[in-house]
Design goal:
Helices cover about 70% and strands about 0% of the residues. The chain is mostly helical.
Length: about 140
């Protein structure tokens, strides 16, 4: 698989923290890792794991594909039933669309809960405090 834009600057959580550290390290008042009892290897590992969990939701294309699939399933199921047997006749398609939207909402909620649970599981208060201090450092 070929990447379309290899020169694109990554702007995600992991890179925003590491770029801020690289740009401000050594300035007066900038947080020092040793003061928080962490090493660079621990920070890098933690940021990598956290970014992997954040990215586990998938790309925008994948999310839209899932929305499309979940929206079509109820419509396909309703279309297998003869129109005369449907409770609301032609208006049943609106119910099918609403059911599709409900399926999308349920999937979205489940994914968000799973991501939040995984993030809470790997949480490290000292590293999180350091990251917050780095991101809140005023240039």
């Amino acid at each position: 698989m070929r990447l379309k834009e290899t020169n694109k600057i990554l702007d995600d959580f992991e890179h925003s923290v590491t770029n801020r550290i690289r740009a401000c390290e050594g300035r007066t008042g900038f947080p020092v890792m040793e003061d928080y009892g962490i090493t660079r290897a621990e920070l890098d590992s933690y940021l990598f794991d956290k970014q992997a969990i954040i990215d586990s939701e998938g790309s925008e294309r994948t999310r839209y594909t899932w929305v499309g699939i979940l929206m079509v399933i109820p419509i396909v199921v309703m279309s297998t039933i003869p129109e005369d047997n449907l409770p609301l006749g032609r208006w049943t398609i609106i119910i099918a669309i609403l059911v599709g939207l409900l399926l999308c909402l349920i999937k979205w909620c489940i994914v968000k809960v799973m991501i939040r649970t995984k993030l809470n599981k790997i949480s490290n208060p000292s590293i999180d405090r350091y990251i917050d201090d780095v991101l809140n450092y005023q240039l």
